[in-house]
Structures are given as structure tokens and as C-alpha cells.
Amino acid sequence: MNRTLILAILVAIVGAGLYFYSNNSSVTDAAGDMKDSISQAAGDAADTATDAVEQATGAATDAVSGAADTAAEAMDGTLFSPEGYDAVKVADLIDASPLDEARKSSLKTALMAAGDDPALLSDILGQVKEALGM
């Protein structure tokens, strides 16, 4: 009976060892899979962040370039003449100015009211130019 008991205990230990080993390898595999998934997600996040930075840099460069062009037109006076008038660019200059919101609104409303009338537009553009300190 001692041999049978020892053999049963030995079989139980070997069985438990195999069970533990088989379950342990799946844990190791799961950990490896999780590590791979995390690495992939981190790589994707880095790519997305890089793309976002590149797009933001491009947009900022375009905005600065557009602002520089608008400022150059404003400085040479063509933007404030009825012939060179561009409603969007003048409105952008007004919005970017340190004027209070009420003054900005009244200048833009006056420009819209002037429409295409060269005499009225010239007068309003002169007021805008003066308000902006140009």
C-alpha cells in the first residue's frame, strides 16, 4: 500500500506541475500579447501626435504668412483704398486689433453698410485706418 500511496502522490504532484506549467505559459503568452498591444498603441499615438503637430505647424505658418501679406497690403495703403479693398482682410485686421469689442463691431458694421459705394467706402476705410493707428 505504501507504493500505491507514493505512486498516487507522485502522479498528483506531476499532474499539478503540468497543470501549473500549462496555465503559467498562457499567462506568459497573455502578458507578451499585452506588451505587444501596448507597444502598438504607443506607436500609433506617437504617429497621431506627430501628424497633429505637423498640421498645426502648417496651419500656423499659413496664418502667419496670410497675416504678413495682409499687413503689407495695409501698410502700403492698397487695402484701405476702394480699389484694393478686401472685406475679409480688413475685418481680420479689425478683429486682431486691440480695440474694444464695441468699436470693432461698429467699424465692421459701417464697412458692411458702405457696400460698394466708393465715396462712402473711402470715408469708412479712412476711419478704420485711423482707428487702427495706421
Report on this model:
- It is a single chain.
- The chain is an all-alpha fold and 134 residues long.
- It folds into 2 domains: 1-55; 77-134, no CATH class.
- It is 84% helix and 0% strand.
- Helix 2 packs antiparallel against helix 3 (101-114) and helix 3 runs antiparallel to helix 4 (118-131).
- The model has no long low-confidence stretch (mean pLDDT 74).
Summarize the structure.
This protein has about 130 residues and is mainly α. It has helices spanning about 1-75, 85-95, 100-115, 120-130.
List keywords for this structure.
mainly alpha; 134 residues
Oligomeric organization of the protein chains: single chain
Write down the secondary-structure element order: HHHH
Structural class: mainly alpha
**Main beta sheet: strand number and arrangement?**
none
Q: Work out the helix count.
A: 4
Overall body shape: rod-shaped
Low-confidence stretches: none
Estimated radius of gyration: 37 Å
Count of folded domains: 2
Furnish the topology, listing elements before pairings.
Elements: H1 2-76, H2 87-96, H3 101-114, H4 118-131
Helix pairs in contact: 2-3, 3-4
